[in-house]
Write a structure and sequence with these properties.
Structural class: alpha+beta
CATH topology of the largest domain: Proliferating Cell Nuclear Antigen
Strand order of the largest sheet: 10-6-2-3-4-19-18-17-11-15
Radius of gyration: 19 Å
Shape: elongated
Helix content: 10-25%
Number of strands: 19
Strand content: over 45%
Distance between the termini: 53 Å
Number of helices: 4
Number of domains: 2
């Protein structure tokens, strides 16, 4: 049996909608500790992970483990209001979202594909250790990256000893943003290697930031390591709930 209840339907549904616009058909693992959501786009350019602990929900009833594939695009037709709560239930090969308002109830359902179990495979995935990272308020990182929207298709990120430098690729584009530990909203910068530079597709970064915005993540950490994927990570509500995105760098001759 799997049944979950959240008293903040708007927060949860809008969060899943934002994730679905980036990665629409994720793997979802339910167990007694929480929900793990993960997907990778067909070009292997972007991977997104969400973990919602059981404490995120007002009611959490999961017996055993259930691994499914779900198309989140059906949520675009789900309307929610600030006072609504949501009940989520798995029955056979269907998932049901019941939105309950003050005087109304609306139910949406979608077929699922049962798979797994694959948790052991995920747990054996290699761990990348990053020495270069910046931790800052969401608005600091988001507004800095969004400054390049419309003027560049890529973003070059450079870690130097005491700063992080963001640069675009536009011809004649002189937009350059430097973030240091003295910059308001920057919580800290770690620099463990020689000067490291990597280039990323700006659209992927912007898409990931929208998901973090919908999760109301107050603080973001951005990790860069030579030719490894960039990692964006944030936690919300409590330290057990997290969102991570991994973005492949562009390899430029």
């Amino acid at each position: 049996m799997i049944k979950l209840v959240s008293h903040d339907a708007m927060d949860l549904i809008n969060f899943l909608k934002a994730y679905g616009r980036v990665l629409p058909t994720p793997l979802i693992i339910f167990d007694r500790f929480g929900i793990y959501i993960s997907d990778t786009d067909e070009n292997l350019d972007i991977n997104g992970e969400i973990y919602l602990s059981s404490s995120y929900f007002e009611e959490y009833n999961v017996e055993g483990e259930k691994d499914i594939k779900l198309n989140l695009e059906f949520l675009k037709d789900v309307s929610v209001h600030s006072e609504d709560k949501v009940e989520i239930e798995l029955k056979n090969l269907q998932i049901y979202f019941k939105i309950i308002g003050n005087s109304t109830a609306r139910e949406y359902n979608q077929k699922i594909k049962s798979i797994g179990p694959i948790k052991d495979i995920i747990s054996r995935a290699p761990v990348i250790r990053y020495e270069n990272y910046i931790v800052a308020d969401y608005d600091v990182i988001a507004n800095s990256i969004r400054s390049f929207r419309g003027v560049s298709e890529t973003l070059k990120i450079t870690f130097e000893k005491d700063r992080v430098i963001l640069e675009g690729d536009g011809e004649g584009d002189d937009l350059r943003i430097e973030l240091t530990s003295r910059f308001g909203g920057v919580r800290g910068i770690s620099y463990g290697e020689e000067c490291t530079t990597a280039i990323y597709v700006l659209k992927h970064l912007l898409d990931a930031l929208n998901v973090f915005e919908n999760s109301k993540t107050p603080t973001l950490a951005l990790f860069v390591k030579d030719t490894y994927p960039l990692k964006l990570e944030g936690m919300f509500k409590n330290r057990f709930n997290r969102v991570r995105f991994y973005l492949q760098p562009l390899f430029v001759d």
